[in-house]
Amino acid sequence: MLKKVFGKPYTSIGPEEAAALVAEGGLLLDVREPAEWRAGHAPRARHIPLGQLAGRAGEVPADRPVITVCRSGARSRQAAALLARDHHQIYNLAGGMRAWVQAGLALQAKGGRPGHLT
Q1: Which whole-number Å values give the CA distances from 46 to 4, 7, 40, 53, 72, in the listed order?
Q2: Which of 2, 12, 27, 101 has its CA 20 to 30 A from that of 87?
Q3: Is the pLDDT at 6 greater than 80, yes or no?
């Protein structure tokens, strides 16, 4: 509760920690636009564009860690702040998908083909 009053209501983490949380059952929530998602996204990520998130927040599980991600980290910070109102384990991937790729983590496109950042 104090964190929500005095500090950010979420924690920023790097790509390696995000990947570890996903491996342990966390949800990587990609809030980029549909064209960005189609070009390439992290395996096992879930896609809800930031503009739709307020209306679809009920689709985000409250019982496990949620890591928000966008291209650079700006939109995902907004998503993390929005979700932190009702969720307790919210993280933002600092540096976004750019940091994910720079860390050597996989991107995939439709059908499991290799993806790329747009």
Answers
A1: 25, 27, 12, 12, 17
A2: 101
A3: no
- Catalytic pick among 70, 80, 84, 90: 70
Pair of tokens at residue 110: 């439709």
Identify which of 56, 70, 62, 50 has the alpha carbon closest to the alpha carbon of residue 90: 62
Residue whose pair of structure tokens reads 């949800």 in the numeric block: 27
Cβ atoms of 89 and 1 closer than 8 Å: no
Structure tokens at 59: 């689709």
| Tokens coding 92 | 């933002």
Largest CA distance in the chain: 44
In the chain, the amino acid numbered 55 is G
pLDDT, tens digit, 9 for 90 and up, residues 21-46: 999 999 999 999 999 999 999 999 99
Distance CA 15, CA 44 (A): 14
Structure tokens that stand for 28 in this block: 């990587």
Give the whole-angstrom CA distance, residue 40 versus residue 59. 22
Whether 46 is catalytic is: no
